[in-house]
Amino acid sequence: MNIAKPIRVLGCRRSGNQAIIEWIARHYNTTVHHKDLTKNWKGAKIHKKERVIEYTNLDREGHIVIHSFEDQTVVDINPDILILRSAYNVASSRIAVPANKVRKLSTFLKVWTDHARSVLDEPLHHVIIYDNWLNRTTRRSIDLGLPLPHLQIQDNHPKKCEHSTFEDDSNYLERYRQKRPPQEVLDNEEIRSLNYRIFGWTLLSTGEFHS
Fold it and tell me: Is position 54 within any domain?
């Protein structure tokens, strides 16, 4: 069972995009992943940051091509799958990596709120909430919106993903406790409201947890 057209996956940087894509790839015999594309990428010219990753699972059937994008708006990409992680964990994760790898805070504020609004506005694309995906029980019920070569969705994931920093024993749901999010994020009332509506909790300007 081959997927005829490339699947477009979108998420904020540091939202677990690569880990989830590796998990999707585990459902197919072969997967070709074009990573970190720009919104204007048409296939004719390879962006200098693009990397092509190939996966093979001998005990699976079917072929899929994935085009992934980070820090772009929904209207620019029109994704098939949108990945969303809680705002405060994304913000803390972004400032935890070397400065030259982190996009501007203003980009995060714009893009995360755009993605969150899209999740609440009856999106035409399929949504994967990263925080739910981390839970094996809820992972079983995720609708990828893709024809799968076998009936049961894979509810487990590698202990450590091959092409990402994801590790199964890390606490990705409380990154904000390990590194305080920027004050600009804590003071943002729209992020506070959206995070509460989607995830059932938020942080106050003081950094205090509220549910």
Answer: yes
Domain-located, residue 197: no
| Gap between the Cα atoms of 53 and 83, Å rounded | 19
Q: How far is CA 6 from CA 33, 112, 169, 199, in A?
A: 9, 24, 32, 30
**What is the Cα–Cα distance from 90 to 84, expressed in whole angstroms?**
9
Tally the C-alpha atoms within 13 A of residue 73's C-alpha that lie toward its C-beta: 8
Amino acid making up residue 111: V
Q: What confidence tens digit (pLDDT) does each residue in 60-116 have?
A: 888 899 999 999 999 999 999 999 999 999 999 998 766 544 558 999 999 999 999
Domain that holds residue 45: 7-170
Classify residue 203: in a domain, yes or no: no
At position 13, the amino acid (one-letter code) is R
